[in-house]
Amino acid sequence: xxDLQGLLTRQFSxxxxxxxxxxxAAAAVMRGFAQHAPDALEAGGVLLGRHLVDGxxxxxxxxxxxxxxxxxxxxxxxxxxxxxxxxxxxxxxxSDGTCTYLGEWHTHPEPIPTPSAVDLADxxxxxxxxxxxxxxxxxxxxxxxxxxxxxxxxxxxxRLVSRTDPSTS
Length: 169
Description:
By secondary structure, the chain is of the alpha+beta class. The protein contains three helices and eleven strands. It has helices at about 25-30, 80-95, 115-130, and strands spanning about 10-15, 20, 45-50, 55-65, 70, 75-80, 100-105, 135-140, 145-150, 155-160, 160. The strands form two sheets. It has a nine-stranded mixed sheet with strand order 10-9-8-7-3-4-2-1-11. The chain has a two-stranded antiparallel sheet with strand order 5-6. It starts with 9 loop residues before the first strand and ends in a 7-residue tail after the last strand.
């Protein structure tokens, strides 16, 4: 199973070897919002970190968490744009341009998360309309596993395989 306490660095990969690594602190923060209780609300935010220059890896260093203005229910999370954008801009400035927006994360109240039709439509809209460095990450935290997808400007979305536990990918 996935590391429920977020103690290990999470690694996911594409067939071509490209790696997505979720740092310990970022994984722990997201895991803290896992919807274990029957009344737990969906949570989410943005992923911040680095693209390695050679294109071999994307490193998630930190995440934003639900902020005032976000809307949350048991099965929905709507991220208010401006407060999270302020966090993205602040991280960029404080890092001299090395920490950037990597994508989006949210929780699902299921062990092994799968994107809903709403998720897929939102991801397609983001791929079409948002500004980002390709690829963009979409991450869903379930109650027993984290899953990661990469999205490309042409609308292609692919799920990555966990390198630390392929049985949950």
